[in-house]
Amino acid sequence: MSYWLLCHFWSKSILINQNKKTISLDKIRVNAIAHNQEIQSKLTIENREWVRKNEEWEITANN
Predict the structure, then answer these.
(1) What is the pTM of this model?
(2) CA-to-CA distance for 18 and 14, rounded, in angstroms?
(3) CA angle centred on 53, ends 51 and 55, rounded to 5°
(4) Concatenated DSSP letters of 45-57
(5) What's the rounded Cα separation, in Å, for the pair 26 and 39?
(6) Residue 6's CB: how many other CB atoms inside 10 A?
(7) Which of 7, 31, 33, 62 has the smallest count of CB within 10 Å of its CB?
(8) pLDDT(55) > 80
């Protein structure tokens, strides 16, 4: 009986720990996705700025 209880609680604690690991991995994944999107949006803004400046230079050079 006590052996069964010990095994039962031990297996439950393993499941809980695995669940915590999964949650923390999900948090890491979400943070990584958010960070990646932030970098992509910064690059897009910088790229737009670069294109705009390039167009200005082309207009200046053509005139």
Answers:
(1) 0.46
(2) 6
(3) 70
(4) HHHHHHHHHHHHH
(5) 20
(6) 10
(7) 62
(8) yes
